[in-house]
Amino acid sequence: MPMAFHPSGPDANGQCSAQRARWAALALDAAEPNAFYAPDMLTTALNHLDGNGRVQLIEAEANGNLIGLLPVVTHARHGRLPVACVGNWMHDHCFMGAALIRRGAEQAAWRAFLAQLDDAPWAPGFLHLQGIDAAGANAAAIAAICTEQHRDWREVHRYDRAMLHSDLGADSYWDTHVRAKKRKELRRLQKRLGDLGAVAQRLLTEASQLSEWVESFLALEAAGWKGKQGTALACSHADSAFFRAACASAFQAGRLHMLRLDLNGRPIAMLVNFRHGEGAFSFKIAIDEEFGRFSPGVLIEIANLHAVQGDPDIAWMDSCAAPGHPMIDSLWVERRTIVQYRIALRGAGTRRLQRSAAFAIANASEAIARKLKGRA
């Protein structure tokens, strides 16, 4: 059932607790891990990043059990087109858009999602999905249901991003996939850094240290180029509040994976990952640019490689990086293909005609743009 989330309403505490309990059970049996829609992260994002209360939560049920959860928002425009649509909620700090769907009920969940959107008077145009793994459970279920229902849909964009998914140990992975010249240069940088003092790699394990680590990360990121551009988490009260709360709730749930590289007790690089199921998602990295000549970002990624490959509970890690990222692409050789889908919505009467027209306009505009690009 679709619902709005009202964290400050009169029954907020009870509502939130009940929702989180249902989501937690679903997340434990999710067919496709997505740390950004796991209950701790999603609730935190709703509390701090959905200031206008725009997010609708689409729940799919079967026999009284929750089998799917998809947060959506409406958009007044689709890219450059003045065509309204509904899409999965991908806030600025969300790097995966896969719905939480229960293992074994993937198609039933997507059948329910689409039926509810078809019936929703507030859902305009079509469904635009971003951040979907082309080889994941959601993609497979969407393809099956759209084929079953003779529902128009199409892939509108795809790209590959770095992923760490290997049975090799960290040292073997490093020696196998990183060029010898690069390994030699990094060993030289590690030695030069060590000449300046005591270098230590640390993994957050103590709750008593959480606050200090979080504040250190915010300060480190803000002191660099992101702070100068105004895009660091600390530059926004909502973003920094979200980060603090997300780290705290993820730590409590055993899903926070946070590393730091210290020089004489001072952090010069920090990395934040969030876990879900057997996977993990690399969220943010911050470095002290004063030590940029030592490549602290690469050095902490080496520590991350050892931490991940040495943890039997982490089978893979998604870099969540932009395509063609020069640093992580040179360290991790596996790739994850991320796609966007445009899915037609149905309905009755005028609503069906309007949705059909919106879908057709978006497709025609895309086809024209591709032709023009091909001529350029």
Automatic annotation (TrEMBL):
Enumerate the SUPFAM superfamilies for this protein.
Acyl-CoA N-acyltransferases (Nat)
Q: Name one GO molecular function term.
A: acyltransferase activity
| Keywords on record | Acyltransferase, Transferase
- Root EC class: transferase
Q: Is the keyword Transmembrane helix in the record?
A: no
Please list the residue ranges annotated as the BioF2-like acetyltransferase domain.
180-300
Pfam families attached here?
Acetyltransf_6 (PF13480)
Query: What Enzyme Commission number does this protein have?
Result: 2.3.1.-
- This protein's source sits in the domain of life called Bacteria
Q: Which organism is it from?
A: Sphingobium soli
Question: Does Acyltransferase count among this protein's keywords?
Answer: yes
What is the protein name stated in its UniProt record?
GNAT family N-acetyltransferase
